[in-house]
Amino acid sequence: MRQPLIAGNWKMNGTRASAEALMRAVVEGVSGTVGKAEVALCVPFVFLELGERLLAGSAVHLGAQNVCSEPGGAYTGEIAATMLKEFGCRYVICGHSERREYYGETDELIAKKLVRVTESGMRPILCVGETLEQREQGFTQTVVASQIDAIIAANGIESFAQMEIAYEPVWAIGTGRTATPEQAQEVQSFIRARLAEHDKVIAEKIRILYGGSMKAGNAAELLAMPDIDGGLVGGASLVAEEFLAICRAGDASV
Ligand code: PGA
Asked: Which of 96, 102, 127, 168 for a ligand 1 pocket mutation test, highest count of atoms within 8 Å of Cβ?
């Protein structure tokens, strides 16, 4: 049985005051849940210190949304994995479609980021997913397979024992247009099968999250699917009650 992971991806949102209020509300709300699902908040870098303080001793883990592909040194404006670890991060989102699209992140760069995260003792959440155009042309599996295969080729299948995957169809992110549970399940079981071609144990154990307009109203039916092991939640993670309702759906899915 894979423990569900509900991870909030705040993206570039919030102020000191709103971040603090949201963290406090999530910590308080999660303390009243069954706790079967694991919960994490991936916040902007500048709120990590706040997160380290406010989430300490709670069941809510801290995460970041990006990391430098290099271990350290002269990389102006970048943040090293060792720094994230020092601030108490457990998770780091890698290869989000917004980073692939707006910042030109390639599979090769993402593979290096994954190494930085795991060697620093944290767990990457590797994002994969197709655009609407790719889906409509029938290339969903080809695209997702190439994103996964590139990491297997660069880092080995063993690297998947230390990470989570998030399947995030680009057309569902922030659009309010969620993949149906069947659509998500189809791709997520495909990802697991792809990994199983290399290592059945790793494929069976790895958590594959769904991301793309997950909200309180659709979380339960998505999380009920056999290969959906949690959610990477953007917009709905910015509203405490919405996010907590998804956490409760995660608890109920176990
Ligand atoms: P969304 O974002 O829930 O706002 O669609 C999900 C994500 O991009 O991780």
From this structure: 168
Whose Cα sits closest to atom 3 in ligand 1? 234
Test site for ligand 1: of 98, 232, 237, most ligand atoms within 8 A of the Cβ: 232
Q: How far apart are the first and last CA of the chain?
A: 8
DSSP codes, 170-227:
GGGTTTS-PPPHHHHHHHHHHHHHHHHTT-HHHHHH--EEEESS--HHHHHHHHTSTT
Ligand 1 and 173: CB distance under 6 A: yes
Quick count: other Cβ atoms within 10 Å of Cβ 90?
Answer: 18
Q: Ligand 1 atom 2: the closest Cα is on which residue? A: 234
Q: Which atom, in ligand 1's list, is nearest to the CA of 127?
A: 9
Alpha-carbon span 102 to 198, nearest angstrom: 32
Q: What is the pTM of this model?
A: 0.97
CATH fold, domain 5-252, is TIM Barrel (3.20.20)
How confident is the model over 197-230, as pLDDT tens digits? 999 999 999 999 999 999 999 999 999 999 999 9
Say how many Å lie between the CA of residue 74 and the centre of ligand 1.
Answer: 32
| Token representation of residue 204 | 């069976």
Which residue numbers are catalytic?
96, 168
Residues with Cβ < 8 Å from 177, sequence gap 6 or more?
171, 212, 213
Which tens digits make up the pLDDT trace of 77-104?
A: 999 999 999 999 999 999 999 999 999 9
